[in-house]
């Protein structure tokens, strides 16, 4: 197993946020974590990234425990994680500070291409749209060739049309590199569109209610019966009616 | 995304008081030691500063000086508010007027208020008016600039909404612009007062015979009383800080109502 | 009321923006404003013939006189020299100190109250001490300017550091950037926009202080020119000439610093327009 969550419990003071989280993520798997606001899914991701220490339990990656942030597991924030004082090139090359100049430039160029930002290498983030900034962040994360990618509601600040496009882009990029991905979202549709498996979390204190395997091959037809069936089952699990 | 701390950053009250007191204590000790070790005759020890100021305080001279300084700074500052805020509004509201008058302001602003002293003496003679004029100059420009920027940066959508509801220009000013810029102006006034307070000392170092600035210069000139010099400096610092806190209090009240 | 075609085309007063010819009109207005100012000055002088204050033409001649006597360059250089040294030494101390205060909370708690007491004390109040330690001369003036610039720069730096979005630090740690490198690669670059604004404002303050210091404690420079011109013969034309020069150079310094704010690597940090 690539990533293992071993009985993770997390409390902030007297507030219990996560309870007995046990999960296994396979190499190259795209895993989504869904849940209502405040269920602790972001906290869980932070623990997996080494930014928070759990109250008990541990996360192991390749059987090695996670003790702090590491460049082998890169966090992708919303587009505000992009450094505003660096160009696109500067951002993507940010983690490559210890490889020789020539190789670095090649890598940066490669990932600029991959995320579809050719021609914008010298642009500053303030000149880019939200979706483009998000792509810079993904490229920055991939450029250091991490083992695992953590994405915490990365498309949250984008408009819905851009979000749809970005999902397709993300899948395309993921297929090119086949990294292990942990993707946190509150958007159930998004999780069913993207993930190999969806972990449904309960409200606080968050625990794993169900793990749903999405067995539809890509590209997924959003009108297919199987898609709707899986989506509705998750809606039901969370306790939401699907009529407005 | 939380910062890499899993507990709150609240620092205990004890630490908030202990740390600065300890640092101040250490600095005072270093000061006293430095005076002792270099065997200087002139530079005072912390203790002698205290005694000298105490003596002045008992003679009531110190309080006369403080009163004079306060009167001067508040007079100059009030004048600056009364003339500066309307001008700032005009400049902020009308880009044309701003373009015309701004170059004048930008040329006059870098001239140290003290450099106006000869002119001030011609206009006002050797009297209290001269230092008040300098303080006025010191605080006038910051106030104008702050108000002007505040008005300029009122979000256009507020004004659009106002026009949408049929407000005339005077109504826009009173019902939208003024409330919108009020928090910024209050902060700006506090900062401008800080500048006025600093300018006060400069103003009182020339051509007056009372006040805290005068105390410092006079103490040195009439007998190298550096204990009074340092004491005067500390008074200025502490008073300035107190007044700044008063402004901050007002600021908090205004902002909490506005936001 | 006027139609407003798009939000971006709305001016401060809610009305739609005009075309590019307004920019030319504005420049014309600036010129007119200055022209009116000069005229008003000349008028004020002409209407009051007994006044000691000279008109613009007399002052202009005064500047010419200073130039021909070689004093113009000498005094300007003296003032600029002092400002430069005092200001740069303040920068060298203030930026690391400010960063320390911004990052390490205990340092800030310990030093902040003391800085708050020192802040309201005019640099000029330090003149007696400066003279005691350094005598009457350049070093005293440089010391005063150092003091005047140190506190605002330190405070601005520490505030800017505290306002950095924590996301950026987290990302830097995530990518394994070593702590020392984080200071330059993240900290310094992130605060640069605010730092440059503070530097511009502090330079303005330094310029005010040098003139004041020269009026009291030094024997050369533009501030001294003003005092000397009045004392040695009531040369008010030279007094005002000095004021004009001070204003012009101060303005030039300010514009220079504003240039820095336009650099691409810094422009990202500015949202609002501020007064020209």
Write up this protein.
The complex is a heterotrimer of chains A (244), B (259) and C (276). With 244 residues, chain A is of the alpha/beta class. Helices cover 33% and strands 25% of the residues of chain A. Chain A has 7 helices and 10 strands. Chain A is globular, with a radius of gyration of 18 Å. Chain B is mainly α and 259 residues long. The longest helix of chain B is centred in the last third of the chain and has 36 residues, at 169-204. Chain B is globular. In chain C, helix 3 packs across helix 9 (222-231). Chain C is globular, with a radius of gyration of 24 Å. Chain C starts with 20 loop residues before the first helix and ends in a 9-residue tail after the last helix. The chains are: A alpha/beta (244), B mainly alpha (259), C mainly alpha (276).
Give the SSE string of chain A: EEEHEEEHHHEHEHEEH
User: What is the topology, as strand order, of the major beta sheet of chain A?
Assistant: 6-7-8-3-9-10
Low-confidence stretches of chain B: 1-8
Strand content of chain A: 15-25%
What is the tally of helical segments of chain A? 7
How many distinct beta strands of chain A? Answer: 10
Q: Summarize the main sheet of chain B.
A: none
Q: What distance lies between the first and last C-alpha atoms of chain A, to the nearest angstrom?
A: 41 Å
Category by helix and strand content of chain B: mainly alpha
**Helix share of residues of chain B?**
over 70%
Specify the overall morphology of chain A.
Answer: globular
Taking Cα atoms only, what radius of gyration of chain B do you get, to the nearest Å?
23 Å
The end-to-end span of chain B amounts to: 26 Å
Return the average pLDDT of chain B rounded to an integer: 87
Largest sheet of chain A: 6 strands, mixed
């Amino acid at each position: 197993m690539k990533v293992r969550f071993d009985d993770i419990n997390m409390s902030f003071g007297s507030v219990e946020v996560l309870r007995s989280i046990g999960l296994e993520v396979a190499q190259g798997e795209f895993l989504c974590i869904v849940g209502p606001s405040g269920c602790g899914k972001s906290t869980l991701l932070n623990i997996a990234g080494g930014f928070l220490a759990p109250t008990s339990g541990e996360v192991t990656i390749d059987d090695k425990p996670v003790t702090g942030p590491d460049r082998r597991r890169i966090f992708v924030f919303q587009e505000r994680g992009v450094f505003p004082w660096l160009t696109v090139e500067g951002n993507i090359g940010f983690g490559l500070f210890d490889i020789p100049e020539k190789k670095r430039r090649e890598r940066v160029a490669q990932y600029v291409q991959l995320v579809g930002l050719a021609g914008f290498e010298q642009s500053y983030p303030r000149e880019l749209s939200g979706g483009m900034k998000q792509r810079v962040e993904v490229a920055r994360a991939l450029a250091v060739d991490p083992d695992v990618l953590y994405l915490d509601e990365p498309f949250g600040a984008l408009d819905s049309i851009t979000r749809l496009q970005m999902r397709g882009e993300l899948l395309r990029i993921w297929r090119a590199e086949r990294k292990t991905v942990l993707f946190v979202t509150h958007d159930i549709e998004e999780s069913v569109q993207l993930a190999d498996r969806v972990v449904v979390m309960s409200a606080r204190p968050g625990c794993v209610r169900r793990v749903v395997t999405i067995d539809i091959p890509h590209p997924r037809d959003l009108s297919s019966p199987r898609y709707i069936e899986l989506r509705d089952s998750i809606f039901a699990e969370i306790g939401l009616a699907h009529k407005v | 995304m939380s910062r890499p701390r899993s507990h709150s950053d609240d620092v205990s009250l004890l630490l908030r008081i202990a740390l600065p007191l300890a640092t101040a204590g250490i600095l005072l000790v270093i000061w006293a030691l430095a005076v002792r070790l270099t065997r200087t005759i002139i530079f005072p020890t912390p203790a002698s500063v205290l005694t000298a100021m105490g003596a002045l305080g008992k003679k009531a001279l110190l309080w006369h000086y403080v009163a004079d300084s306060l009167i001067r700074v508040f007079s100059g500052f009030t004048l600056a508010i009364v003339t500066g805020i309307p001008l700032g509004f005009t400049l902020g509201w009308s880009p044309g007027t701003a373009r015309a008058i701004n170059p004048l302001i930008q040329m006059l602003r870098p001239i140290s208020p003290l450099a106006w002293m000869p002119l001030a003496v011609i206009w006002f003679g050797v009297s209290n008016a001269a230092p008040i004029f300098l303080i006025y100059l010191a605080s006038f420009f910051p106030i104008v600039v702050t108000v002007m920027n505040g008005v300029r940066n009122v979000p256009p959508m507020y004004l659009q909404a106002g026009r949408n509801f049929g407000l005339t220009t005077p109504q826009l000013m009173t019902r939208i612009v003024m409330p919108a810029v009020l928090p910024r102006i209050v902060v700006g006034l506090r900062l401008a007062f800080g500048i006025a307070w600093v300018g006060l000392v400069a103003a009182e170092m020339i051509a007056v015979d009372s006040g805290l600035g005068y105390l410092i210069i006079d103490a040195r000139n009439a007998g190298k009383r550096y204990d009074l010099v340092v004491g005067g400096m500390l008074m200025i610092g502490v008073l300035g800080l107190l007044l700044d806190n008063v402004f901050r209090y007002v600021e908090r009240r205004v902002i909490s109502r506005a936001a | 009321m006027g139609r407003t075609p798009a939000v971006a085309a709305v001016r401060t007063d809610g009305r739609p923006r005009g075309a590019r010819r307004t920019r030319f009109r504005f420049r014309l207005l600036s010129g007119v404003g200055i022209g009116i100012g000069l005229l008003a000055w000349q008028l004020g002088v002409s209407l009051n013939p007994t006044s000691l204050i000279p008109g613009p033409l007399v002052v202009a001649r005064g500047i010419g006189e200073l130039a021909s006597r070689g004093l113009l360059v000498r005094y300007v250089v003296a003032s600029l020299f002092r400002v430069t040294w005092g200001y740069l030494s303040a920068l060298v101390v203030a930026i690391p100190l400010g960063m320390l205060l911004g990052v390490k909370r205990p340092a800030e708690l310990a030093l902040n109250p003391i800085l708050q007491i020192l802040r309201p004390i005019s640099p000029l109040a330090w003149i007696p001490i400066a003279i005691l330690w350094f005598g009457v001369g350049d070093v005293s003036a440089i010391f005063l300017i150092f003091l005047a610039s140190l506190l605002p720069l330190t405070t601005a730096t520490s505030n800017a550091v505290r306002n950095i979005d924590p996301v950026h630090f987290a990302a830097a740690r995530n990518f394994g950037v070593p702590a020392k490198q984080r200071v330059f690669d993240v900290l310094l670059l992130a605060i640069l926009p605010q730092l440059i604004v503070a530097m511009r404002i502090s330079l303005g303050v330094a310029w005010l202080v040098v003139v004041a210091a020269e009026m009291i404690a030094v024997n050369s420079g533009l501030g001294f020119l003003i005092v000397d011109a009045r004392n040695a013969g009531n040369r008010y034309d030279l007094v005002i000439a000095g004021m004009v020069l001070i204003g012009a150079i101060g303005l030039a310094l300010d514009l220079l610093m504003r240039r820095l704010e336009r650099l691409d690597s810094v422009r990202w940090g500015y949202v609002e327009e501020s007064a020209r």
